[in-house]
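Support reply, case 0932

Customer input (verbatim):
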Amino acid sequence: HRRVDKGSGRLPGDPDEEETIHARSVSLGSGTLGVSGKIDLVEGKGARVTPVDYKRGKRPHVEGGVYAPEKVQLCAYGLLLRENGFECDEGFIYFVGSKERVPVPFDDELVNQTRSAIEDFRKLAAGDEIPEPLDGSRKCIRCSLVGICLPDEVGFLSHRGVEPRPIFPSLERGLPMYVQSPRAYVRKDGERLIVEVAKEKAAAASYGEVSQVALFGPATMTTPALHECMRREIPVTYLSYGGWFMGHTFGSGHRNVTTRTAQYRTSYRRLFEVEARLLVRHISGELGRYPVFMTR
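Our regenerated output:
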């Protein structure tokens, strides 16, 4: 996907019949369909094109060589291309692990299934309840969206009797970045933070190496650099020139809002229950002369 995302992402507005198209990382949207997407590769000639979606695993041993959700995803790309004036009757799934390209024809059955899925997604997004997560699925562990879906947390909070799986914390290698020069200026350069003093480069570090940023006195940070820190959940601390704490900027991350709300609500309820029990014990004399102060 790194190689795919380096593409120009542009399709010709009015392609010539003999023009060869080979565009990577193409972003398209449709108000009629109500969806948007980024296609890994679009290739073809003239107005007739074919979307190609890259999967890093191996081709599954199922009928047609492709799982149903992947077919729907690819067909949605085909519908987007049609909505943008191109002819598109099939697509390909390229499995990097086995180096196989599997064709997926966009027949009436698949098109109807895709349109139905889009409509279901729209209804789901308009509602106020999230769907039930999978129970103990092995796919969840390697899914890139597991941090948003939070299947174990949702199952635990809904009292479904599902025990959360063990947590495997990532290896923390980041170090704090202290910016103390009063003329320091922190900016974003790709995947790195650049510190300049008097317009001269003084230091640099990749975002993966930084656990937090501390700005002293009038040291400043650009908005793009701050946005990237918030997106990666890297806290930025503001202090006076002498080191007095002023405040924090910390992004909430890309999380499932409904689940996070339930987590906070549950944590407050349990804390209140603990405090209430301690108060009862204190009143009954079990805690002796040590007072317990209620915070609510």
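We compared this against your earlier run and they match. Two observations from our side: The chain is about 30% helix and 30% strand. Residues 289-296 have pLDDT under 50 and may be disordered. Please reopen the case if you see a mismatch on your end.
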